[in-house]
Amino acid sequence: MAWECGIDGCGSVFEDVESAIAHQADAHERRECEICGTVVPDGFLAIYHTFTNHSRAEYVRAYDADSAAIRTREKLLDDVTSAIDQEVLAEMLGSS
Ligand SMILES: [Zn+2]
Ligand SMILES: [Zn+2]
């Protein structure tokens, strides 16, 4: 499966999710979580942070999201967490 970086129409494609996440952390600005203020890399890790640390209701309030936006992100999160090496993921989150 190919992983495409969707930040600001970047469109870079990677063969594995670890490379895509490393790219997003390196090449793009970090963002502050609108809910708790933690600074996280944009893209997959930002979604991972939001959906594992906060409730759907908090997400909707902070980001003015609709249910379609939530479904899209939940699907992406599923794909990422099933594909990624958990140790890599932990390391990426720990280094932020
Ligand atoms: Zn990118
Ligand atoms: Zn947060």
From TrEMBL:
Q: What's the domain of life for this entry?
A: Archaea
Q: Sorted alphabetically, which PROSITE patterns does this protein's record hold?
A: ZINC_FINGER_C2H2_1
List residues of the C2H2-type domain. 5-28
InterPro entries per record: DUF7565, Znf_C2H2_type
The protein's name in its UniProt record: C2H2-type domain-containing protein
State the organism named in the record: Halovivax cerinus
